[in-house]
Amino acid sequence: MKHSPTHNGCQVFHFAAWRWCIKRAHELLEVHESVATFHEHVLITGMEQFLPLKPAPEGRLKLIEVRVDIEYAMTKTDLSKPIILAPLSSPSGEDFGWMVIDGWHRIYRALSEGRETLPAYLLNPAAEEAIRIPL
After folding, report:
1. Which superkingdom does the taxonomy of this entry point to (predicted)?
2. Residues with Cβ < 8 Å from 7, sequence gap 6 or more?
3. What topology is assigned to 16-131 in CATH?
């Protein structure tokens, strides 16, 4: 099932050639447990390179930085709420790994507080396709 062009109220996460409807991801997770695998402790160390936690090393440039509202991240996020990861693949099926599509504010807070893991849902490929918004 593809993302409906008439779906209202999408919260969109956009990375490179992909866009996902986070609202639809949450709707699927509420109705069908089989759309994802739950992991209580997913390692988040190393993700600080994508966040405004520290500047790029001198003479270097950050090519990717996820924008976060720091005040919101530090005061209004619930670290018990699982982040959501989507599998990435090329049109030919080449596996590119996983992308966090929901939870960057929680990751920012967790890393700021010295945590190394967060709970997470890893979507299956069919669910990822169902929430992907065509460019």
Report:
1. Bacteria
2. 21, 23, 24
3. 3.90.1530
Give me 33's structure tokens. Answer: 């447990």
Domain map (residue ranges) of the chain: 16-131
pLDDT of 58 above 90: no
CA atoms within 13 A on the CB side of 39: 13
Beta strands 117-123; 83-89: pairing state:
parallel
Strands 36-43 and 12-15: unpaired
What type of residue sits at position 128?
A: E
Of 106, 66, 100, the residue nearest 86 (C-alpha): 100
Closest CA to 3 of 100, 89, 18, 39: 18
Average pLDDT, the chain: 91
- DSSP string computed for 103-132: -HHHHHHHHHTT--EEEEEEE-HHHHHHHB
pLDDT for 113 beyond 90? yes
| Cα gap 37→4, rounded to integer Å | 24
